[in-house]
Amino acid sequence: MALNYWLSKGGLMDELKVFTGNAHPSLAKAVTDYMGITLGKCEVFEFSNENIFVRILENVRERDVFVIQPICSPVNKSLVELLIMLDALKRASAGRITAVVPYYGYARTDKKDQPRVPITARLVADLITVAGANRVLTVDLHAGQIQGFFNIPVDELTAQYILKDYFRKKGLVDNLVVVATDIGISKRARDVASRLEAPLAIMEKRRVGNTGKTEALNVIGDVKGKIAITVDDEIDTAGSLVNTVSTLLEEGAKEVYACATHPVFTGPAISRIAASPVKEVVVTDTIPVNGSKKLDKIVVLPIAPLLGEAIQRIHSGQSIGAMFEQA
Asked: Could you list the active site residues?
């Protein structure tokens, strides 16, 4: 009878389940609402001794399971929650476990650029794999090479199309220039520029030590009299953003908009953005933007439809790349 049930249902892997920790539950709820399913039930909390406890409250044996958890503030707690959830699902005999990590924390430490330093992005990849993930779904990694840190499949989505569509709908299509905030992001910025049919400029800058401070040195390209749109993968303290905006205006840009996928917004970021002459800062909600992080000039675009579509495609064995072919 069990065999007949299995055959009639096409296998229990046909049953899709989505769980989340405490990093960004509203995003997970938006994803499951988009997919028309119910968010999986689980307990994820911290004991008084700061040990994290996870209990999956429904059967996941042989199911296709997705765990949505960005590695965002509090970063270390979010990471450990993710790892423990993966372990719990593995020990509950889930059929396949996909770690959905919209924001991959520790991504900036992706190489040895100083003596005696770690490659933490690789360490996190190893931890996720050992904890039980069979594949990873993420959005706009800081460096593409991080995909190679995994020995399991990694699907990297991009929010470029969401950001591009926003500026098109806003009517910003004429006299534009797209500005890469540094040379490292130039390929991504070039793709955005191509889709907006705009020229590309590049901000040459220098990072100062390990403090996160940067110095804008030069603008490569013509921005005079144009509407500039800066492109970056994330905005952290917004120091680089403020310097870039000031430099572009000094070079004759008419006005400046900024866009980035991940709104990290730490330390003085919000006060810097509020005081900056930047017209708008356009981001997605891979990381929660709430409370004191909300400003009129900060526009948050939903990432849930992109994640929901990708999860459905992974579950049904369809191509992820096809999502972007007609975009």
From this structure: 205
Percent of the residues in the chain that have a pLDDT greater than 90, as a whole number: 83
Whether residue 53 sits in one domain with residue 77: yes
Q: Which domain holds residue 176?
A: 160-302
One-character DSSP codes across 243-265: HHHHHHHHTT-SEEEEEEEEE--
Interhelix angle 304-316/25-35, rounded to 10 degrees, is 60
CB of 248 closer than 8 Å to CB of 219: yes
Residue-wise pLDDT for 281-315, tens only, equals: 999 999 999 988 999 999 999 999 999 999 999 99
| Main-chain phi, psi angles of 88, to 5 degrees | -60, -45
Longest Cα–Cα distance of the chain, Å, equals: 75
Q: How far apart are CA 311 and CA 245, in angstroms?
A: 37
Residues 271, 165, single domain; the answer is yes
User: Do residues 44 and 95 both lie within one domain?
Assistant: yes
What is the per-residue pLDDT for 209? 58
Q: What is the pLDDT of residues 96-154, one digit of tens each?
A: 999 999 999 999 999 998 899 999 999 999 999 999 999 999 999 999 899 999 999 99
Taking Cα atoms as reference points, which of 284, 307, 280, 310 lies closest to residue 295? 280
Query: Is 150 in the same domain as 180?
Result: no
User: How far does Cα 138 stand from its chain's mean position?
Assistant: 6
Q: Which residues contact 326 (CB under 8 A, 6 or more apart)?
A: none
Find, among 17, 24, 18, the residue nearest to 284 by Cα. Answer: 24
